[in-house]
Amino acid sequence: MGGRGAYTEGKQKKYVYSTVGEIEGVKVLEPVNDKASHSMPAEAHSSRAYIVLDKENGVFRQYREFNEGHLPTLEIGYHFESGLSENGKNVFHIHEYSQPGIEHRQKGRLMTPEEIQKYRKYFKGVSESQINDYLDYYRRRNK
Predict the structure, then answer these.
(1) Domain range annotation of the chain
(2) Which residues of 78-110 are buried (b: 16+ CB within 10 A; e: fewer)?
């Protein structure tokens, strides 16, 4: 995968990610340079979705979906998110895009129980207890 998934001036940039596996048919990416950030590709040319796992413990960190035009349309995270996380804990959250394209990413919001159910098959290494703790937190915040 070229520089964050993009092609520049008709030339593919140096690879930034490598595919290291799959979860439920979705490619799991890892930065080629392990010092790189957790940023995901801004475009997708070989898949409709990608997953990145946490560098430290291999647990689900991020999922991004792309449309047929290769642009992001949805992003799910499980990590600290300012304004959503409680006491610095990881929190399931979703960023929607007002229209396809990385520049249209909206502020994150908590995932609903229905969204957790739909996407939980991708949450590698996240225990049932962690999911239930999150759902309790979601219900407390939405009373």
Answers:
(1) 3-141
(2) bbebeebbeeeebbbbbbebeebbbeebeebeb
